[in-house]
Design brief:
CATH superfamily of chain A: DsrEFH-like
Number of helices of chain B: 4
Distance between the termini of chain A: 25 Å
CATH architecture of chain B: 3-Layer(aba) Sandwich
Number of domains of chain A: 1
Radius of gyration of chain B: 14 Å
Helix content of chain B: 25-40%
Largest sheet of chain B: 5 strands, parallel
Largest sheet of chain A: 5 strands, parallel
Oligomer: heterodimer
Distance between the termini of chain B: 25 Å
Order of helices and strands of chain A: EHEHEHHEHE
Number of strands of chain B: 5
Helix content of chain A: 25-40%
Largest interface: A-B, 19 and 20 residues
Structural class of chain A: alpha/beta
Strand content of chain B: 15-25%
CATH class of chain A: Alpha Beta
Number of strands of chain A: 5
Amino acid sequence: MKFAILVNEGPYTHQASDTAYQFTKAVLAKGHEVFRVFFYHDGVNNATRLTTPPQDDRNIVNRWSKLAEEHNLDMVVCVAAAQRRGIVDEGEMKRNGKDATNLAPGFRISGLGQLIEAGIQADRLVVFGD
Amino acid sequence: MSTTKQFMFVNRKAPYGTIYAWEALEVVLIAAAFEQDVSLAFLDDGVFQLKKGHQTKGIEVKAFEKTWGALEDYDITKLYVDGDSLKERGLTADDLAIPVEVLSRAEIGKLMEEQDVLLSF
């Protein structure tokens, strides 16, 4: 089956991102396809490479990056939600006159059309959030 | 991308206090721009999103009322409201800023079953 995943909450405050990660991992382990993981609302905060949790805690951001690398996952961060919350890649830095970037490896910033496309293409769009 | 699917957006949260309702509206408009079969359901505190006369100047955020007009521009006409949620909050359809279809929980549940994609905010 072809899945799409929507993550609507940021890391650490909510369980949603952890559960989305575990679910995505399980889906892939069962041999299903993940068309896209889309990050919206505070979910975009899963994509900052500046996250530094205590050493004995899980690193939620790195964990997503690693999963993306291992499975060639398409992980998309909503541009409008990212702009509000200061998640920046090279293109956004230049476009908005910022002096830094913080997008973690494996993520890309794009529009909400990517979420709708995921809903159209996938057999199941599974939403994780409040 | 010519596939059309039925997308229902389920609005459950109060209009202010969190950003969910506002960012949900942004997705709704994009789905319509992609020419999908879009409907909106309002339940629980989500019914407050539709209430007339929001005064948001004091909290410095944009009010919803003006943006509802945009739904018609995008040909979004399927707006369903849970009648029990209205009643529990002392509201009737007359308190709402735009015309909606008031349904029972069972009827909304049935509509949900018919959808291809359900997005809950």
